[in-house]
Amino acid sequence: MQTIDLEPDLKNRRRDAWTIELDAQGCARITVTNWFYGTQVGPFRKRYREMLPEDFRRHHLERVGALAKSAEPASDLIVETAAYPGYLTFTATARDYAAVEKGVLTLLIPEVAGCSSRYAPTPATAALHRDERHD
């Protein structure tokens, strides 16, 4: 049996980045970006290339709503399926996202991993995802 070593950028993994900008009133501007590498790129591309426009619009609103109840879209959902790695990104604003009391900042980040990507392997692709890594 021979083992093939892959370049780091070709290995199965997903990279997630959140940027949260807070103002003095606790309102937030949140940008979420998810990159998909290795065998995760194929299902990611297929899903978004085949998504109907109305489903895409609804999906965008669901992703924004998963950030906070008060969240509203501040950008379109941008999905890049032609590049490698594949990625998606969007920005939202949320009122009362954080609070400062007696010098202590309280900020709830809802299920970062679950919220950042609704993608889940199907039974047909689950075997391809067994060595996934999340950065």
Walkthrough of the structure:
The protein is α+β, with helices and mostly antiparallel strands and 135 residues long. It contains 3 helices and 8 strands; from the N terminus they run E-E-H-H-E-E-E-E-E-H-E. It has helices at residues 41-50, 53-65, 112-116; strands at residues 13-22, 28-37, 71-73, 78-80, 86-94, 98-101, 104-107, 133-134. The strands form 2 sheets. Strands 1, 2, 3, 4, 5 and 8 form a 6-stranded mixed β-sheet that branches. Strands 6-7 form a two-stranded antiparallel sheet. The two termini are 30 Å apart.
Structural class: alpha+beta
Count, helices: 3
Oligomer: single chain
Largest sheet data: 6 strands, mixed
N- to C-terminal distance: 30 Å
One letter per element, helices H and strands E, the order comes to EEHHEEEEEHE
Which whole number gives the mean pLDDT?
A: 82
Number of strands: 8
Unreliable stretches (pLDDT < 50, length at least 5) are: 113-135
Strand content: 25-35%
Shape: flat
Fraction of residues in helix: 10-25%
- Rg of Cα set: 17 Å
